[in-house]
Each structure stands twice: as structure tokens, then as C-alpha cells.
Amino acid sequence: MDIAIRFVENPILAPKDLEASRPGLEIACLLNPGAFTFDNKTWLLIRVAERPTQIAGTISFPVLTNDGIEIIAINENDPDLQAEDPRIIRYKGADYLTTLSHLRLVCSDDGVNFYQPEDYPLLQGEGEAERYGIEDCRVAQIDDTYYLTYTAVSQNGVAVGMRTTKDWKNFESKGLIIPPHNKDCAVFDEKINGKFYALHRPSSVDLGGNYIWIAESPDGTHWGNHKCLVKTRENNWDSKRVGAGAAPIKTKRGWLEIYHGANSKHQYCLGAFLMDLEDPSKVLAQTDSAIMVPNEGYELDGFFGEVVFTNGHIVSGDELIIYYGAADEFVCAARFSINEILSKLESSQT
Ligand code: MAN
Fold it and tell me: How far is ligand 1, taken at its centre, from the CA of residue 136, in Å?
């Protein structure tokens, strides 16, 4: 059952609201924002997906090079082209993304009206592992350090990159913290018994699946003791893939995680599960039904329709505001009661 109270202002940001990062490109999608508070404001770190204006008969997209971008253009009728999915194409044995994503900061005094502040940098892909861009950043805060975990895409695969910052102007790159194929990595906002914890989502398609895992680390950079936590469920809304949202929310009953699940028709919904406070590798409970389902026009129709996807939220008492990508094209927000989500959890058998 959908228990989200959507903002009446939705979408709060659309591609037309921001300027492209360089001449020759336009913004195709604004989506999947990380969220955090800093300097008494609410901030979003938005994924901005760009490409050249599309000309009939040709598919063209940018990739990063050592000193700029290169535009690759392919004739739509080329027999070597496979382009059924608007997000990815296959050409002569190699996979490409149809858009190049970077991360952009916007801030707000009221959590609804966001603007781009002056003097803050764009975050672009850097180096070989990020040639196809960086996406879907989660932001965790431990003491005065923000940990950014994002999807780093290149011809070599889809992996998890990390950068840290204290002031959002100077960033330290930690490189790839988890190799391909992996994404949806959310670091916990506090250490547990002296260790860092993170959720992540490897894809093991021949044996296994697209499941949520947990790992621990002594320093936030080197991760080990990986354990499989939450799996896809046959004949359910999350039958094909599941992945963590933002950092788990600490409640009296346990760590509450909002996650996304997709079915075989690529419909993306949200659900929740609960982890033990002292040992988060123990799942205590999970929602049976989705708590948010795409049903508004801006969630059903867009770059990739029937999608609600979150990787950023702000908690204040019982109120949870999730920021989410709608139809892979718009940034939206919705309000939940944390106690209401907790009341929807069913105890796990394991
Ligand atoms: C999937 C989708 C895309 C994304 C790629 C790479 O195809 O989530 O939006 O660009 O993976 O992460």
C-alpha cells in the first residue's frame, strides 16, 4: 500500500531548471539525489544526465576522455546497434550509456525550493573507472566528514566509488571501494562497536541475483566480512532486483532501511526492512507490500517510466522526507511517518 504523502510542488526540479555543464550538451534527466544537511540548509546532490540534442536517425552520447568529452554518434539503422533500452545501448560488442551523468549540488532553506549556490564545484567522473560518468550518490555523515558513495561507470563495468569532504569544496577521492558489478552503496551514519558498516548491491546473475549485501570496515575505505542480507522475492513487487536507498535510519526497534525493488517489467517501487541495532547483519523484519508505487503522471511517464527511486532523505523526529527520482527524469519529494513504516514491517522467519 502506498503510504507516501507526495509534495504538491512535485516535481521540485526538472531538466529545464538547470543549465547543462558544457556547450553542445543538454540535460536529459535530473534524478536520484543524495540528501544531507550542511550550513543550516537542506542540500541535494543531484544526478544530472546529459547528451547532445538528438537528431532524427542518429543516437549520440558523450563519454569522458582525459581532457574533455568525446561524442559518439551511431546511425539508428546500423545492424550492429542494439538500442531497446533508453538507458543503455550495445554496439559492436561493447556497452555504452545513452547519457553521461555528473553530480550537482543544490540547496534550500525550506526543503522544497532549491537553487544552485555559487562557488561550489560540480562533481565529474575522474579517471578510467568513471569514463561513462558518476551516478546516484548516497551521502553519509560521520562526525564532520561526509562520505559520498556513488556508481562509477566505465567500459570496464559498474562499480562503487567514494569521495569524502568536510566543506563541499575540497574532496578527497578514495577510488573504487567495491569493484564491478556493484552499486547502491549506502554507508551507515555512525559506527557500530567501532566499525563502519555499509549496504551494497552486487549482481551475480548466473548463480545468485541482484541482492542487498552488508559489509564492515575499520576505516570506511577497506571493506570486508560481506554478507547477503535481503533477496528478491518471486511473484512480488521486488522480484528482479533490490538495492539500498540512503543511510539506514536509527530507530528504537532497529536500523530502518528504505530500499527499491523492481519487477520483471522494470517497475521500481520502495519498501523497507529493519536490521538489529547491535548487529545490522541480522534482518529483523521487512515490508511485504511496497510502501510507495509509481502512480503520478511524473512517475509514470518520462525518460524511463514507472520508476520511483530514492537514495537521499532527511529525518526529523517521526518525519521522513524522501527525495526521489521519478521516471528517471525528475526530482521529487514525499513525506512519510517513520512509525507508520515500522507498523508495516512483518517479522522475518530467519
Ligand atoms: C542501469 C540504469 C541506468 C544507469 C546504468 C549504469 O542501466 O540504472 O540509469 O545509468 O544502470 O549504472
Answer: 9
